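User: I'll paste a sequence; please echo it back and then give the predicted structure.

Assistant: Echoing your sequence first, then the prediction.
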Amino acid sequence: MDRDGEIIGLIAGNGQFPRLFAENARAEGFRVVAVAHLGETLPGLDELVEEITWIKVGQLDTLVDAFRARGVERAVMAGGIYKAGLMEGFAPDARGVRLLQRLTKWSDDAVLRELAAELEGEGIAVVESTLFLDSILTREGVLTDRQPDEAQWRDIRFGLEVVKGIGRFDVGQTVVVKSGMVLAVEAIEGTDATLRRGGALGRGGAVAVKASKPTQDLRFDVPAVGIETVSVCAEAGIAVLALEARKTLMFDRRQVLAAADSHGIAVVGVRL
């Protein structure tokens, strides 16, 4: 698709997602202008975008000014911000403080929706972060050579119910279960720590389930896995990794599935 050099804004968090978005946007003919976060966004993004501005978390005036200066009318949020590290890197400016004062709750969704509203008030529409990325959304079905056994399928279905339940409270997107028992629930520590904790308690054979929240806003905070996820599952003794189909991003699909096969881990895409 030739977009005749249309500019799109990228609000970059951590992980591979910002780089992948920038690469795919450029391939579609867009010019990418990025605002990246110090201590969060991986180095090298500047090589994939036309212009980049680095800020600390909460510096909204600089973010808005960077986009307005380049005439950005559409932007995406790609990659998260590690909650546990916010105390070190959080430096809201006056605009950021005003945004926080408007919040009635501090959940991820509440903060991000308020940020989106702030940008939209400046004429910058926040669009789905999965734009251009349909090819890396998890497919439905068993994706590896190994398939879950009957007991593990029961745990997958149970885990989906649990993760959707905690999602209603914006707690996390991952649970680890075994034999109908919940071993770990993701909270502020993130997915990898959850997998390690649940795997240790399960002592092998546990099932990890990652899914979107029931009211998931695809403009931000889309569940995602990559090669590191499989490495952690192998280290923790996780036997099955179940991902919500069409609502979970899988980075480096071939490498992820090859690694899972080499470790005897079943990877499945499931729907409720």
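The longest strand covers residues 31-37. Residues 135-270 form a domain with the Cytidine Deaminase; domain 2 fold (CATH 3.40.140.80).
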